[in-house]
Design goal:
The structure holds three protein chains of three kinds. By secondary structure, chain A is α+β, with helices and mostly antiparallel strands. Chain A is 26% helix and 27% strand. Helices cover 43% and strands 12% of the residues of chain C. The radius of gyration of chain C is 19 Å and the shape is globular. Classes of the chains: A alpha+beta, B alpha/beta, C alpha/beta.
Chain lengths: 391, 326, 324
């Protein structure tokens, strides 16, 4: 024999509580399963309530006139068998609660900061971001005063070439665009410069071994080692990979390294190798070769010019020791490599002859500082000492 | 070969009745009268009373009977004379056809086809001019299609019959006389995809059923004004072919929907919501729609014309979209 | 009359099983295990038990939301019904339907329909299909007298008779459509006459007498199977409990309920069977014990059942297609 609890039953989908009106039983009475023991007043009227157990009434817990929620204990009785393990409250034994949908707040499309409100279509705003056009400088051309895609495209073209392009004069357009960009860069970007010497013995030896196993057409230039090392190092210093637009830093959508390539007839362009951190060295070589070919052939897309999140200049072939570069706005950094040369290398009190290269960083001091820049260069150095891990 | 929408639909019915003995047609006046729109003319003589069944005016009973017969292994085609009368059978359609599969935990499927004439424009006044495709497209558990071309009138029926779930086919009453060319061997077509029936780069016009003709006409006018419109015939209203719609809007960056239903809570509203959900950053102008005016369709021609979408309305709306007007 | 004692035992067993199952359902509903609406068949057991005797496995059955008894006698296991009411995936409708939507393809049990008169057109169509496919089956459609007020009742009887489909219309007249007595809603309460106005052969039967029910349904089924078109039977019965669990029964007197309880179909049959010698001593107790065990097992089965995963939510809205 054990004490069993007789609880306020749920009589309906929308019944939350009931008022006990009357008891038909008193302590000591014997009750049988199915016997009506109480009357409960609900929103629908007075309902006879039965008990589902045989037993003897022990105590009436709730008095007539009391309103109690469904599941509340109304009385106790002494009966055979164990009391029901699960309480009668409907709240228990419910199906698993549906997990609230994950609220992932991603900054995949950070909004530019505007000084005041103006009307711009979503497509125009997206294009402006892609082409790095500052929308606050635009005037809407349509009658409704809304900046449209056409307005953004016009502005992007004007930024790239101050003069309307002459058909077939692609290269002179490029030079004019570069001139404007460089002037703007030196005017607006507070540059800081850092440099470090990177020993290249291991890297070059590894490359030589790799290339020996490859057909000539597939051999890799040491530039791809630099590209990959820079790309991986940027993951440790994301403030160097992205844009300064409208007074704020926007992280790049990926690591797209602009490779400075010389044009025939003079001038440098730096179209992007996309997602350099995710590509293998052979793939980077393929991309690099392709870019160089297309630069020389005048076949670049304007978006490739706008895509780089950082630029890399390697002037070693020309015999320059170190590169003190000018950042391409709206990027916030430029990495330079000079020539690989034999140098006196002092280590543990001994001077030896090692092949090394000078790596430099030009950084936009609004987006990063020397500390960060130094960490970046140290990472590049570190990565180039383990070339096999760059694959 | 030269034919009409009506004849194409009749050919589809004949083919279905010939190929599959489980198929039968029932509805008001489909037999001796030859069909209230003459679609089933001649079928009673050809196939007999077992397979071409005239029903009493009991929409609920004969639509429900169609559901029951489909449950028990037949392939019935229930013709509800018009969508206006289908309201009497809405309980059977919504509470039975659309839900039995789900309520039974997947044990039963209902391969039923319901055909209904729909739409206004013939001065038939308020009770005979509804376009309720959007209401039906609201219901999970059924499929809704709107053939607007001869090829679709010819080809959607077979595919609908082969579908294990209930399919409602809406035939705009003004389309029955539509004339055109149809391949002699035209056959079944899909009921899953929208169709780009006119390619263009400046503006996407989205429509279905009886409004397709007006929309194509408007596109021609717009072309003369230098606006190159792309026209999408939705074909399937439930499920909507989001991919085709979004691909087009991503290309043109502007969209206008033409829908003969009343504006509020319309299918056009649903499509606009989906475009905003899926292609917000592609929009170079606010979305627009041309729908029926919020009025029971009136009888006199000038008022009915003013209530229903017309080519002129589409042109005005399209020009507004091109200007970027909200 | 004579009766095979095995048949007598079967009829009694079915009625007792329904009674105890429904009582247990009431208890579980009060305890919050069964939710939504619960409509109990207590008092009406003779109809399901007697009628199903005359039906064959290949026949189709349509019923209403007060269908637990019909489902059990038709052959859906008590565990599957109980699990369905719990909402568990092991229920006969995979938990998706609940008490009002019991479906089972294996026993041709087409629900479990919650719209009053909503299943009548379905039954007409199902019977039509059976006739068109030249099958010798029939479709039985159970419904309450409240359905007679709906247009669908009239449309369905008319259409069924017009097309001579093999449909059995079985009307369980328990005198109240929820809280509205028949005489307050029908200008003419003679249901047999109503059915007869569509030229459907119709009869009224004492629904508290399982033998009368069985014979009437057998007779009607024979007529229907012979290709004569539909038949209509009215069963005069009474539900001893409220319309659903949440019903204060303000519309009928306790005295009336007590009067009808004197006609309990189980008690009546026990008395008759004992008197006639169809039922041996101790047989009822044995049945009660067997039923108690079965009901207990059904509850345990439901309790142990699983919840369908939430990410299966949108299944079975449309038929799953094989990828093309």
């Amino acid at each position: 024999m054990a004490r069993h609890e007789f609880r306020m039953p749920s009589l309906g989908a929308d019944m939350e509580a009931g008022t006990l009106v009357a008891w038909n039983i008193k302590p000591g009475d014997t009750v049988k399963r199915g016997q009506v023991v109480a009357v409960v007043e609900t929103q629908k009227g007075a309902i006879d309530v039965e008990i589902w157990q045989d037993g003897t009434v022990e105590k009436l817990v709730v008095e007539p006139g009391e309103k109690v929620p469904v599941g509340a204990v109304l009385a106790t009785l002494i009966a055979e068998g164990e009391p029901a393990a699960a309480p009668a409250a409907p709240a228990s034994e419910q199906p698993p609660a549906v997990a609230a949908p994950q609220r992932a707040v991603t900054a995949s499309r950070p909004a530019p900061i505007f000084a005041g409100r103006f009307k711009i279509s979503p497509a125009a705003r997206k294009l402006a971001q892609e082409l790095a056009v500052d929308v606050t400088t635009l005037t809407p051309s349509g009658a409704e005063g809304v900046i449209s895609r056409a307005d953004v495209e016009r502005a992007a073209q004007a930024a790239q070439a101050g003069v309307p392009p002459k058909p077939g004069d692609w290269q002179s357009q490029m030079r004019k665009a570069i001139a404007a960009a460089m002037a703007k860069s030196k005017r607006e970007i507070p540059h800081y410069y850092l440099g470090t010497e990177v020993e290249m013995t291991r890297a070059l030896a590894w490359l030589e071994r790799e290339n020996a196993q490859r057909p000539v057409a597939e051999r890799m230039l040491y530039a791809v080692l630099l590209i990959k090392a820079v790309a991986l190092a940027l993951k440790e210093a994301p403030e160097l990979n992205g844009f300064w637009i409208n007074g704020a830093f926007q992280p790049g959508p990926g690591i797209h390294i602009g490779m400075a390539v010389a044009m025939r007839g003079g001038g440098l362009v730096a179209p992007a190798i996309h997602d350099a951190d995710k590509k293998s060295l052979p793939q980077l070589m393929v991309d690099l070769r392709d870019l160089i070919t297309r630069v020389r052939g005048g076949r670049l897309k304007s978006s490739e010019m706008a895509d780089p999140t950082i630029t890399l200049t390697s002037l070693g072939e020309l015999g320059v020791e170190a590169v003190y570069g000018v950042i391409y706005p709206p990027q916030v950094a430029l990495i330079g490599f000079g020539k690989i040369s034999e140098r006196a290398w002092a280590e543990s009190g001994v001077v030896a002859c090692r092949r090394a290269v000078t790596a430099t960083l030009a950084g936009d001091h609004r987006a990063s500082d020397g500390h960060r820049g130094a960490q970046f260069l140290a990472a590049v150095n570190r990565l180039l000492q383990e070339p096999e891990k760059l694959q | 070969m030269k034919t009409t929408y009506r004849e194409a639909m009749r050919a589809a019915l004949r083919e279905a009745l010939q190929r599959d003995p489980r198929v039968f047609l029932m509805g008001e006046d489909v037999g001796r009268y030859g069909g209230s729109y003459a679609v089933s003319m001649g079928l009673l003589a050809e196939f007999g009373e077992e397979r071409i069944r005239d029903t009493p005016l009991s929409e609920s009973a004969f639509v429900g009977a169609g559901i029951g017969a489909a449950l028990a292994g037949m392939r019935p085609i229930v013709e509800v004379m018009t969508v206006n009368f289908s309201l009497l059978a809405l309980d059977q359609i919504l509470n039975n056809a659309a839900t039995i599969r789900h309520m039974s935990g997947g044990q039963f499927s209902i391969p039923l086809v319901i055909r209904m004439a729909t739409g206004g424009g013939r001065q038939l006044a308020a009770q005979h001019s509804h376009s309720l495709e959007g209401w039906y497209a609201h219901i999970p558990g059924i499929r809704v299609v709107a053939p607007a071309t001869l090829a679709d009138a010819r080809g959607m029926l077979w595919t609908a019959l082969a579908d294990p779930d209930p399919v409602i086919i809406f035939e705009h009453a003004l389309l029955y006389n539509l004339e055109g060319e149809l391949a002699a061997d035209a056959g079944a077509v899909d009921i899953d995809k929208a169709a780009v029936c006119r390619a263009g780069g400046d503006l996407t016009l989205i429509t279905y059923g009886g409004s397709l003709g007006k929309t194509l006409q408007a596109a021609e006018e717009l072309a003369r004004a230098g606006i190159d419109a792309e026209v999408i015939d939705l074909r399937t209203l439930r499920p909507l072919d989001d991919a085709t719609i979004i691909a087009s809007v991503s290309k043109t960056h502007r969209a206008l929907i033409v829908d003969e239903g009343w504006k509020s809570g319309s299918l056009a509203a649903e499509i606009m919501a989906r475009i905003v959900e899926q292609a917000f950053y592609e929009l170079d102008a606010p979305l627009a729609r041309v729908c029926s005016a919020e009025v029971p369709i009136p009888y006199p021609k000038h008022l009915e014309d003013a209530a229903l979408p017309q080519v002129a309305n589409i042109l005005v709306a399209a020009e507004g979209v091109m200007r970027g007007k909200a | 009359m004579t009766m095979d004692p095995r048949l007598a035992r079967k009829l009694l067993f079915e009625m007792v099983r329904i009674r105890r199952f429904e009582e247990k359902a009431a208890e579980l509903y009060s305890a919050g295990k069964i939710r939504g609406f619960l409509h109990l068949y207590i008092g009406e057991e003779a109809i399901a038990a007697g009628a199903m005797q005359a039906l064959r496995p290949e026949d189709a059955v349509f019923a209403t939301y007060r269908e637990h008894g019909h489902a059990l006698v038709r052959g859906i296991s008590a565990g599957a019904v109980m699990a369905e009411m719990y909402g568990k995936a092991e229920g006969c409708s995979r938990g998706r339907g609940g008490s009002m939507h019991l479906f089972d393809a294996a026993t041709r049990f087409y629900g479990g329909n919650a719209i009053v008169a909503g299943a009548l057109p379905l039954a007409v169509g199902c019977a039509l299909a059976q006739k068109m496919q030249r099958r010798s089956e029939l479709t039985a459609c159970f419904f309450g007298e409240g359905a007679v007020a709906e247009g669908e009742f009239h449309e369905s009887l008319n259409l069924a008779e017009l097309w001579k489909v093999p449909a059995l219309f079985l009307c369980e007249n328990n005198l109240y459509a929820m809280g509205t007595a028949l005489e307050r809603s029908e200008a003419d309460t003679d249901l047999v006459e109503k059915a007869g106005s569509y030229n459907v052969p119709a009869k009224s039967v004492d629904g508290m007498d399982v033998i009368a029910v069985m014979h009437a349904v057998q007779e009607a089924a024979d007529l229907v199977r012979a290709g004569n078109g539909p038949c209509f039977l009215e069963f005069r019965t009474y539900r001893f409990r409220a319309h659903s669990m949440f019903d204060a029964e303000l519309y009928r007197s306790k005295a009336e309920v007590e009067r009808w309880k004197q006609h309990c179909p189980i008690a009546a049959f026990v008395a008759r069977a004992t008197h006639e010698g169809w039922l041996a001593a101790g047989e009822l107790e044995a049945i009660e014990a067997q039923v108690a065990l079965e009901v207990g097992q059904a509850v345990a089965f439901a309790e142990a059942g699983t919840w369908e995963p939430v990410d299966h939510l949108t299944r079975d809205v449309y038929t799953e297609r094989a990828p093309s």
